[in-house]
Amino acid sequence: MIVKSNLGDFSYDNRDVVRIVNPKQRDLYLTNGIMPKDIYTSIDDKTNEKILVYIFLKSETREAYEKWCNYELK
């Protein structure tokens, strides 16, 4: 499914992206120059509170995600 970004003139296939809701992970991606392709609000299933969902391309986050998993992303 192709989705139009809320951040400008950009569309993406929802199979090619990752959804990040963890603020620390999001901030580390941003610090490392990885920019979100979309941002939207959603509801946290556990708390029923509003959350921000950041959309990043899988191809741009692969290396950072590996570092994140190994506690190496700074």
Major pleated sheet: 3 strands, antiparallel
Distance between the termini: 33 Å
Q: Which whole number gives the mean pLDDT?
A: 96
Overall 3D form = globular
- Cross-sheet strand order for the largest sheet: 3-5-4
Helix content: 25-40%
Q: Beta-strand level of the residues, as a percent range?
A: 25-35%
Q: Which secondary structure elements does this structure contain, and how are they paired or packed?
A:
Elements: E1 2-4, E2 11-13, E3 17-20, H1 23-31, E4 38-43, E5 50-57, H2 58-69
Antiparallel strand pairs: 1-2, 3-5, 4-5
Provide structural commentary.
The protein has 74 residues and is an alpha+beta fold. Helix content is 28%, strand content 32%. The protein contains two helices and five strands, in the order βββαββα. It has helices at residues 23-31, 58-69, and strands spanning 2-4, 11-13, 17-20, 38-43, 50-57. The termini are far apart.
